[in-house]
Structure formats: C-alpha cells, structure tokens
Write a structure and sequence with these properties.
- With 289 residues, this protein is α/β, with parallel strands linked by helices.
- It has a domain at 6-84 and 185-284: Metal-dependent hydrolases (TIM Barrel).
- It has 10 helices and 8 strands.
- Strands 7-6-5-4-3-2-1-8 form an 8-stranded mixed beta sheet.
- The protein is globular.
- 47% of the residues are buried.
Length: 289
C-alpha cells in the first residue's frame, strides 16, 4: 500500500482569529507531517502570501484560500480555494465584509456586557494583531478572565448560533460569496454543515439551492463530525454531484483543543482530496496542465 499524504484545508492564522502568524501555521503543519494546507482566514486574505512564501521555502504546499461569512438564518460559511489574490471583485467585496464585521464585533461585545461580563472591544483588539476580531477572541477573553473554563465552553454557552451573545450581522449573501470566489478563479465549498442547523432533507434542499448559485462542494471531513455525520455528508455530496474538501478548523492557541491535521486526534484528510479538487478547478476553468 502506498503511503498516504496528510493535508488540512481549513486553518486560521492571526490575520483573523488564529494565534499563529501565517508562516508559523505553515511551519507547524510541516512539523506535524502535513504536505499541504489551505490558509482560510475569515473574510481576509492578508496572510496568504506570507503562508505561500513560507510553504515554498520549507516544502509545504499552501493553497490560497478564504472563509467567507454569508447571510443566513443560522450560520453559513463558504470556503474559497485556489483564489486569485489580486481579483478586484474579491478585494472590493472583502472591504464591505470587514466593515460589517466591525459592527458584529460591537454587537457581540455589548451582548456579553449585558450578560454581566467585563469585556471590551479594545481588549479583543489587543489580542487580534490584524485588527480583525472574531468570536474566538471574545471566547479567549472569557476564559482568561475566568468566566469560562475553556474557549470551547465559551462557544457552547454564549457565542455559538442560538446562544445569547451570537450576532448574525452579515453583508454578503451566499450568492455574492460564491460569485466572488468564482470571479477569482476559485472553487466554493460550504463549511461545517452541522452548524447550518438543518435536518437532512432541508439541508439537501439548501445545498441544491447553493449548487444552483454555483457552489462546487461541501466540507466532507471536519473536526466535529462524528463518523455517522461524515458518511452522511459525503453521501449527500455524491448524490448532489458536489465535490468534497476537509480540514480541522485549526486556530492554534485560540482553540487549543483542535490540533492541526488531526482535529481532536483522529482526523485524516488524504492528499487525494486535494487532487480531486484541483482536477475540478482545472476542468471548470479549462486550465492547461
């Protein structure tokens, strides 16, 4: 049997809500035996070039990517892979998204204050080097101040969808997210399907709608998926003729319970997943090999 190469196509740096600088994410991937990663910072491509340059230097393949937040009744994130970092539509839409993200930060902070927690936007910004604050920064603050025992508990109790400090202020529709990824020559994948919070049939209908907008695939491997969920989502992808991606949602110290490449310890995304994605990209855009 040939040796399988491990990859992680869902990672974050401190250019959004991870704790490692982009180059350190790549070095960490190398140290943990990974051959390829995608840096998928939230609504930002600020760290991608640094990650790609480090990848070239040390021999880790880095896919230019992003994770976009979309307008949804629950929580919808769309991953974009193989994107052109110079694309004008992508850059202009990201400017819009970042303005709304600042409003969302203020809403989240106020909700936490209303719950009796002593936190400020300034404190969140102090641990967000790129100035892009996410829920993980507030989760870190709650944990450091002793309000919660862990970042995971902070999400579970206060910051996840349906919890009292969750803010769903977004500006980009799903269609806009998919179109800007396509304009940048990329592929779009719906992330962590369980967080969309739909039963199986409604989820299938929703993915069918997204596919009609141009969605290319779904995240078929993810840290929080059970074996049953993983099989269900991958079968759903096959039924709908959607591609499959996979990753851990690594954030380093911001979510220390998630390890790069292995998630909670037993994940394995094979390089063949990336090969299939690249072949789809080449076919979609008529790339010459």
């Amino acid at each position: 049997m040939s040796e399988h190469k491990q990859i992680d196509l869902h990672t974050h740096s401190n250019m959004s809500d991870g704790s490692f600088p982009p180059a350190e994410v790549v070095r960490h991937a190398k140290a943990n035996g990974l051959t390829a990663i995608a840096l998928t910072d939230h609504d930002s491509i600020a760290g991608v070039r640094e990650a790609m340059e480090e990848g070239e230097r040390i021999g880790v393949e880095v896919i230019p990517a992003i994770e976009l937040s979309a307008v949804s009744n629950t929580e919808l994130h769309i991953l974009g892979y193989f994107i052109d970092l110079e694309n004008e539509l992508l850059l202009s839409q990201l400017d819009r998204a970042l303005k709304v993200r600042r409003n969302r930060t203020a809403e989240t902070c106020q909700a936490l204050v209303n719950l009796g927690f002593d936190v400020t936007v300034e404190e969140a910004l102090a641990i967000a080097p790129a100035g892009l604050v996410g829920r993980a920064h507030f989760a870190k603050l709650l944990t450091e101040k002793g309000y919660t025992s862990s970042v995971k508990e902070a999400f579970d109790k206060y910051l996840s969808y349906g919890k009292p400090a969750y803010s769903n202020s977004q500006c980009l529709t799903a269609r806009e997210c998919i179109e800007m990824i396509e304009a940048a020559g990329g592929l779009s994948f719906a992330a962590h399907l369980h967080l969309i919070k739909l039963e199986d049939e409604p989820l299938k209908e929703f993915l069918t709608e997204l596919k009609a907008m141009g969605l290319d695939g779904i995240e078929g491997y993810y840290t929080e998926y059970t074996e049953e969920m993983e099989n269900k989502y991958r079968n759903m992808a096959k039924e709908l003729s959607l591609a499959v991606s996979g990753g851990t949602d690594f954030h380093a110290g911001m979510k220390p319970h998630i390890k790069i490449g292995t998630g909670f310890g037993n994940m394995f995304v094979d390089y063949s997943v990336l090969t299939k994605m690249r072949n789809l990209r080449d076919k979609k855009y008529n790339f010459k090999k």
